[in-house]
Amino acid sequence: MFESLTEKLGQALRNLRGVGTLSEENMAEALKEVRSALLSADVHFKVAREFVERVQQQAVGQQVTKGIAPGQQVIKIIHDELVRLLGEGTTALSGERPLKVLMVGLHGSGKTTSTAKLGKLLKKRGYRPFVVACDVYRPAAIDQLEILAKQEELGFYADRVSKDVPAIGSAALAEAQAATADCIIFDTAGRLQIDQDLIEEVKRLRARVQPDEVLLVADGALGQEAVNVAKAFHDALQLTGLVLTKMDGDARGGAALSIKTITGVPIKFVGTGEKTADFEPFHPDRLASRILGMGDVVSLVEKAQETIDQKDAEKMAEKLRKADFNLEDFLAQMQQVKKMGSMQSIVGMLPGMSGMQLPEGADKQMARTEAIIKSMTFQERRKPEILNGSRRKRIADGSGTKIVEVNQLLKQFSEMQKMMRMFKGGGGKKMMRQLEA
Ligand code: GDP
User: Which Pfam families does this entry report, sorted A to Z (predicted)?
Assistant: First the structure.
């Protein structure tokens, strides 16, 4: 998310970071670059202009705090302005249980996927979610939601015969109540463009089910176009929040930065990948830190806490300490990490690495490693030293990889074991001393 903006802002601010005294020239120079970074991230030009003006006013008027480099103070101002732009205040869902959420948006925006993602997230928060397919025009959309609901073990309702959307809504509410669900998410029909029929249909459904939230799912990769779409939907439907999808990949991020200012509607969630785990509540302050290359360790830790089993983690740590970590443990660890989402989305949360783009296929590489280990017998995973030439060939064939890849993995693993043994034997301290020297 925001890789290129992070990189460009990083460049613009690099010169300021170490500056002892701020002159008008170096400020003006840096702010010009900030403005152009925002514009090339597809931020609305008015928003970019106001942003720079506000930063300038505050930087000029500020007291120089002792002990803090002026350059750092400017970065703090930019951080706070970014938070303001992304939307201050709470982005939590409002409403008592049963919580009713209407998802609206155009075709292909990621509405159905986001419906399941939101269900999964709320389930983790202790809700009993129920998802409802209200797209009566595309049977494929109903199937898609049903598959995702099954996968995430969410309650599901659809009516493949009726075309009466409000009636489907009422029936779904009754079903959800019977299933003791306390959160009902309606996936509505999309259109290629916003049109009156679509709006009327959503309005009728809304009148019937009385949702607590009406969330627009907008494709963040569309940049300014997403902002226009959001404005049109908000004018017609009075949205309560936004879900910005496809913020992974090469999304330039301009939509996220302009949409609140232009529409007044807060972003509540962002989609960062195709997997159902690639979905995050929107935290303006954390994202501002991420954009400024400071990482977002808080979200990373939260994600880890949600997905990684604490007992397993302790067991693994113990194994690592005792240097008794075999390939089977390695596989288990890899599977845990995968549950947290794509590698790119994880790396983006690390301080100093937010702008880093992983090489194409990092996730595929992980899948190949996984296939190699899975092609080994349990004994081989526990004692890789028994892997002779013919076993390695069998594993390469079985996993659809090459012997060199198997060899490479085993070599890496053996290096890792050596390191673990060094730490186990009290070599850790010695090694640290060496590193410090
Ligand atoms: P709908 O027509 O609005 O219901 O859209 P879908 O939910 O069917 O999504 C359209 C496509 O976008 C699918 O291929 C999804 O996998 C993909 N998609 C949805 N959300 C995201 C996201 O956050 N990131 C990426 N990369 N793809 C997404």
Answer: SRP54 (PF00448), SRP54_N (PF02881), SRP_SPB (PF02978)
